[in-house]
Structures are given as C-alpha cells and as structure tokens.
Amino acid sequence: MATRTAAATAAKSVAPTSTSATPATSTTATSTGKSAQQARADAKAQRLAKRGGTTTVAVNTVSDENAQPFGLLPLLRLPNSGKGVWASIRDLTPALLLKQKTSRWGSPTADTLTRVRGRMHTMRGKGKLIFFVLREALWSVQCTVSVSVPGVSADMIKFISSQNRESVVDVVGVVRLTSQPVESVTQQNVELEVHSFYLVTAAQPSPFSVEDASHPEGSVDARGVPYVQVQQDMRLNNRVIDMRVAANNAIFRLQSAVCQLFREFLLKNSFTEIHTPKLLGSASEGGANVFRLDYFGSPACLAQSPQLYKQMALMGDLQRVFEIAPVFRAEDSNTHRHLCEFVGLDLEMCIRDHYHEVLDVLGGLFNYIFSNLNSRWAHEINLVAQQYPAEPLQWIRNGPALRLNYLEGVRMLRESGPQWDMSDTADLTTPHEKQLGRLVKAKYGTDFYILDQYPLAVRPFYTMPNAENPLYSNSYDLFIRGEEIVSGAQRIHDPELLLQRANFWNIDPATIQPYIDAFKYGAYPHGGGGVGCERVVMLFLGLDNIRKTSMFPRDPHRCAP
Q1: pLDDT tens across 370-390, in order?
Q2: Which of 117, 263, 338, 403 is catalytic?
C-alpha cells in the first residue's frame, strides 16, 4: 500500500469540517496590523501543520481506478488513465443528460459515467447516505453517495466524510434529474450520483470558510442570527481563499471582460496596441507623486502613465494607439477609490478637425463596454449583485453620451445649495463630484457622463489651452456614479508651447527632451485619455471599495501578498 505523509497531503489527522453556520464574530485589528481573527487562524494552522508533520497517515494511492472506487490519486498520472467522461460542473444540465441518454441513432443508451473535478464545499448526512456540494469556480452541484449504488461501501462513505472543505477531488458518477430544484447550488435541476471518489489534493483548515465569506454584509440566518462577517483585511491577507467566493471570482472575470471589450472596440476602430516603458528618467505627469528609484546610479521613477510615449507613437505615424498596462502613483491617499498601482487602459488618437472626435470614441467605447457586459457576462453580474446589491448602472444607450461644459456643471452645483458654491476656475473636490453625479442622474437619468473644458490650471503641462478662453483647456473627465473614471485632453503638439508649459510646471526640459523633440519633425493634432480599470469595474457594479476589484491591491499600507 502506498502512503503519503500528512504534511505532504495536509490530510487525515484533521477532523472533518462542520457544516453548521459559523457564529458571528468581529475582527479587531491589533497593533501589528494583523487582526485577532487572523492571529487565531494562523495559530490554529500552525498547530495542525506541526501535528501533521510528525504523523504518517496511511492513505490508499489509486493505481487502478476500475478496481479502486475511492482513494488518493498519485501526484503524476498517465494520459487517459481515469474512468468517466470529463465535464465541467457548468455543463451538468438536463440537456447533457438527454444527450448522454440518446445514441447517435436516437435510441436510449446505458448510463454514462461523467467525471468532474472541484472543491469540497459543504457536506451533510451520515451513515449509509450523505450529500455534499462540489464547487468549480462559479458553479456547483449536489452529489449524493449511497451504499445502494453498486461499488459504494461504508468505507468509501467514511473516506469521503473525512475530507476537509476546499480539498480538490475527482467525482465519477451518473447525472440524474432532481425531483425538485436544489436551491443551494447553481446546477439546480440535476445532481451527481457518485460511483467513485478520488482525492487529488487535501486542503488544510483555512482561516475562514468560503461559505462564511459568501454571505452579504448584514445578512442573517433563518433564526435572525447575523452570519459571521469576514473583514476586508482578513480577505486581502488570504486572497486566494477570498477569490473562491463566487461574487469575488466573478468580479475578476468582469475585470478581464472590461479589458477584453476595451481591446475589441479599439481594434475594430483602427487602433494599434502598443507597449511602453514603465521605467522613466522623469515624471510623466509632473509633480511629486512618483515612486523614485536608483537606475544604475542615475535617478529614475516608475511611470505615472504611458502618456508621453502614446504621443510619441502617434508622431511615429501609428495614428491611433492604446495600451493596457500597470500605472504607479505614489499618492498617500487612503480612500475607497485610490490605489498606488492600478491597471491603466490608455488610448491616444490623431485629430482631424476638433478634439471632440476623441469624446465620440470614448462615448462609443463605454457604451460598447456597458452593453456587452450586460449581454455577455450577465451571469457574473448577477453573482456579484447577490452578495453586493446595487442599483444597475443607467446610461444613454441609444445616442451619444451626455456632455456637460465645466461651467455648466459649476452652475448646477451652485444652484443645488450654498454649500456647493465654488470658483469657476477651481478643481472639483470629491464631494463636489459626487453631488454633481447625483444632480446629473436626477436631471438626465444617466450615471455616466462627460464633463468638458476643465480649467487649465488644474490639468497636466501637456494639455492644450482652449482657443476661446485661455483660462480653460480642451480637457475632459468621464464619470460613473459621480466618480471619475477617465481623465483626458487634447495634447499640445507645438514644441515651443510645450516647452513653455513645462517651464510653468517647473519641469526640467532636459528630462523630457526626447518627448519635446518628437514634435519638431511634423506633428499631428491629437488627444486621448487614461482609464482606471479597477475603478470602472467598481463603479459599474456599484461596489463600495476599489480593493474589491484589485486582485492584490497596493495602497499606502499594503504591499503584500
């Protein structure tokens, strides 16, 4: 009989995990930054690991699945060595069952053994009949194990019952229709009648359960008792577990979808994807909010944006470009919407007549993103809404996006109350932006809009001044639910004016000389914008914190994991 040590498999010295709801607890941060809940979980894991490291547990290692209906799979397997036809849990449907039950000539066939791989989620029952939920990413199915099925023994049921939650297992069985929907799983109209069960890798007890982390904030059980709330720091410190929560897993699939749709739309509109350096000799946006570093004895910094290189690419006659890449901002901002590193979705394009051509593209881009998210990723959006309820995003679908002049926005704020009064040339504060978002929603019925012609003094050095009023600029921001998601402008393409604006911002021209030189040899008028991907996902879904949409967030207090 082959064996594995308990330390190698995280295995069988640990009692099976209870399926009862965890009592509500609170998590208080300690002076070390680690929560009391995290500290207790770490101590428990260490005790279990130490016990497991000194205990050898005999576990059947499966060498012939036809002769062994349960046990531990070897670490390395031969191709096509297992039984059953592989399927994903998402494919376990009545349609699959009908297909399996019918031969190519339309006559009934024998039961088909289906094989799925997933994680042990919950378990109930005892004795000769047990039920467990198998979870694969966003999908789950109920599995039934009964000694009435040929080949299923009491020892097999005992082996299955001993597995910890989150262990990865292979289940081979027959797909059956259920007599009534199983409400606790995604595949509600079928279940898997288990014939064989194989442990792929055993899981150690985790700091919190996926089930606990899946409860909406403030939710209660049937008795009115609040469910345990897994706090944000605990989640972020154990992100690989937190990502298994269906809503959180769906968030990152939606983040991927936003990038996919951004790329799709721009490629369809004659844009070229580029890749620009993130190590720079000087700040790309001006100011002090840069991560500085030593570059082989010379000063350098991490890129605040690909701005200068997007423009240089246009001067190299690429004409329309975009990039999806990390952006670094050394801003000591501890808010719900700021990160020190985020995914930038940047675009830049040549202008023929007027910079509003860029706004036409940006408006069409977000209409494309919002519409396709709703039509192609509705399942993921619904999963997020179940745990994080929010009003669906409203925007103008049939027509151009709403555009407001900056002064019009200031006027709307003033008219809404004296507390919102501000100078015509001042920048909007965060409360002003949110108030304006509420006013726009009430008046125009849209959460998404464009604010045009910002004051020149609040924009970067390369922003083109407005021809009619030099106090303002050909620049714009795009908003969702009263929060900025895009900042952009027509750029200065005249080297002399560019030099003047750089001097105004106290930027040493020598540090950006290659950038200035790019416009000396014939330059196209152009403009563009930069999009914060995590912020778009957060606001589209109506979430309350950008850390929910950053897989491994970086802020002033977090640089791990």
Answers
A1: 999 999 999 999 999 999 999
A2: 338
